[in-house]
Specification:
The protein has about 190 residues and is an alpha/beta fold. The chain has six helices and seven strands, in the order E-H-E-E-H-E-H-E-H-H-E-H-E. Helix 4 crosses helix 5. The longest helix has 21 residues.
Length: about 190
């Protein structure tokens, strides 16, 4: 399967989007050279957060500028998975950019309270990568999760997307490669716009 140059990727804190991103990046053809110098955060015995995150409080801004975004990967070639919680707020702009550039957009949805609980279990504000400073406090985090999920669902509704459970079969259908997926979460849905 021919992958695009970039896969724009968003989900709320606690949606398990980082683990899903790592599974997607096992598909042959993904460029993971952005992990070389990036910090890593481990919780529950596995590396939950790897590579570059774009957006507020991060080292890289969430800018729709291909040249800027691509600089986060020291090696050229391959598909770059461009993660940001902030894409949720500008999904129409991101999708227009994707249609112009030939890139793809992937959304992860998990209900607010499930996401909020998992974010706390994974470390909450002690998580060092990515940083969550801009959410300020626990009230701000729940408000942010709620607003970002609302933006993701509203965009999905406007574009009549099909939501499905994240599974090895889903990855194989969409990317032509069957990865190892240990568990299918009943409250996590994904969609891919090409």
């Amino acid at each position: 399967m021919n992958l695009p140059n970039r896969l724009f990727f968003t989900g709320v804190p606690g949606s398990r989007w980082s683990g899903i991103a790592q599974t997607i990046e096992t598909v042959p053809g993904f460029n993971i050279s952005n992990r070389n110098d990036a910090p890593e955060y481990t919780h529950h015995g596995f590396s939950g957060h790897k590579g570059t995150y774009f957006g507020r409080s991060q080292d890289w801004a969430a800018q729709l500028d291909a040249e800027y975004l691509d600089r986060a990967w020291p090696e050229s070639g391959g598909c770059r998975l461009v993660k940001s919680h902030d894409w949720a707020y500008t999904l129409d702009d991101v999708w227009r950019f994707c249609k112009t550039s030939g890139d793809w957009l992937m959304l992860v949805y998990r209900p607010d309270m499930s996401s909020y609980a998992w974010w706390h279990e994974a470390g909450g504000f002690t998580i060092t990568h990515p940083r969550y400073d801009h959410y300020i406090d626990h009230t701000g985090m729940l408000a942010g999760i709620t607003r970002e999920n609302q933006c993701i669902l509203e965009f999905g509704h406007r574009h009549d997307v099909t939501w499905q459970h994240f599974s090895a079969a889903w990855v194989e259908r969409e990317f032509g490669f069957k990865p190892e997926v240990n568990k299918v979460w009943s409250d996590i849905l994904v969609t891919l716009l090409k």
